[in-house]
């Protein structure tokens, strides 16, 4: 059975008044670093040293997937990805699970993807 890539990446070019561009940039800056409810894959929960060691190993094997160590009393948790839906998280888990057998989907606060503006000013 052939596997189909369902990741769609593209760009939209908008021609607009410069004031709209300025408002969008202000909105982007105001929301920079904010998080929303979503999902991540959790690889580990336990002591600090092991959590950071696992993070280093994960980054070597999957450099394009963001990896975090989160502290939730009393454990450090190694979590990866920023997924808006559990289904998105499950899709990446199919790639990660063969290497990291302890991975499972958890609800978590996630980072918003970077908004890149390519606007033509008039």
**Main sheet specs:** 4 strands, antiparallel
The CATH architecture of the domain at 35-113 can be named as 2-Layer Sandwich
Q: Indicate the radius of gyration in whole angstroms.
A: 18 Å
Overall outline: elongated
Protein structure class: alpha+beta
Give the number of helices: 3
As residue ranges, the low-confidence spans are none
- Report the sheet-strand fraction: 25-35%
State the end-to-end distance. 50 Å
The H/E string reads EHEHEEHEE
According to CATH, what is the class of the domain at 35-113? Answer: Alpha Beta
Task: Estimate the helix proportion, in percent.
Answer: 25-40%
Mean pLDDT: 85
**Number of strand elements:** 6
Task: Quickly list its features.
122 residues, 3 helices, alpha+beta, 4-stranded antiparallel beta sheet, single chain, elongated, Alpha-Beta Plaits
Description:
The chain has a 4-stranded antiparallel beta sheet with strand order 3-4-2-5. A two-stranded parallel ribbon has the order 1-6. It has 3 helices and 6 strands. It is elongated. The chain starts with 13 loop residues before the first strand and ends with a strand. It is of the alpha+beta class and 122 residues long. The protein has a domain of 79 residues: Alpha-Beta Plaits.
């Amino acid at each position: 059975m052939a596997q189909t890539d369902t990741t769609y990446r593209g760009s939209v070019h908008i021609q607009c008044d410069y004031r709209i561009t300025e408002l969008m940039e202000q909105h982007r800056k105001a929301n920079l670093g904010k998080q929303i409810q979503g999902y991540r894959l959790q690889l580990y929960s336990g002591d600090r040293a092991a959590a950071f060691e696992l993070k280093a190993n994960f980054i070597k094997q999957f450099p394009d997937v963001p990896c975090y160590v989160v502290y939730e009393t009393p454990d450090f948790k190694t979590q990866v990805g920023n997924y808006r839906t559990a289904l998105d998280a499950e899709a990446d888990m199919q790639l990660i699970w063969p290497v990291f057998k302890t991975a499972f989907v958890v609800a978590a606060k996630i980072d918003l993807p970077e908004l890149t503006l390519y606007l033509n000013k008039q």
